[in-house]
Amino acid sequence: MSRRKPYTKVVKSNQQRASHVVGMGDVAFKGFQCLNAECQEFILIRKDETLEAFEITCPKCRYVMKSGEESKFFDYDLMDLRIGKAINSGAFTVLHDDYIAEAQEYKYCLYCNSLKPLIFFDVHRRRRGTGRQGECNLCKTIYNSIKNQTRLTDQHREAAQKRRLYMDLSGGSKIDSKTVYERFNNRCFKCDEDLSGAVNRRSLDHTLSVYYLWPLSTDTANLLCALHNGEKAERWPSEYYSPAERKRLSVITGIDYDLLSGPPTYNPEALKLLAQAEFVDKLLIKFSAYMPELIKLRNRLLRETGIDFFQTSTSISKQWIERADAEYKKNQKNLS
Fold it and tell me: Above 90 in pLDDT, residue 172?
């Protein structure tokens, strides 16, 4: 079947293209830390400069990493405990060739001008050099949403603010994605699909739904493929996973099995925060540009928990409370 003729075209103007990115769309870089134990310098070098003989000098400490050579980190004796003698001695060394070969690869995104890991770019076999697309997955998603008119920038911004709102409420913090991926062996917890390198097909899931104000943390996050992440959405673990899966999930995440297997439950720590006037006032000020979202959250919590954090506030306008009350009554009427 022939491809459908495109009916839209994005005409770009005033594009910002940094001078150091020009011509770099298909150039891969190796990124690694200097092997000098006393140096913390992170070094980037073009991959094509490391394919044969190389000599890399750290720009900070001048330590040299050269093909065919190695760095020593300690001497050792292999002791036979039965006779109390060393049966082998030597030095623990790292070959420079092996160290550079296993280093993470990076490339520049031609849209946001950022240097990112190669795995953040979709495969494009026709592109020489890296075999990856010129734009990173994030920029590609934004570009396609513009082209297909599926999601506008304002909607992205609102969604991002909504995530920040729930993160503030739940007590969430920046998570170490790499640690989560390693804990699940880069496999979907639900179907065991190998997600190694499939950045656009894997998702970190709130094991306990953010809808109920639970945080996404390095310890409690779950790894799912895009399909099963979409299926689970805001469902509670007891509504989606089997008892056997919940037992395994409890072991991996440290979340109590009874909590995973019971009914949906609001995060008690988040509810405590909403009883503190100082916290609520700061929250309202921070997200004042998104008051409709705050009103929705207030009305949902009032309906499902009886908590009214607008009443906790010492500064919110009477008009906002009246508007929220009017919407609450309207929704209650529709539900009845």
Answer: no
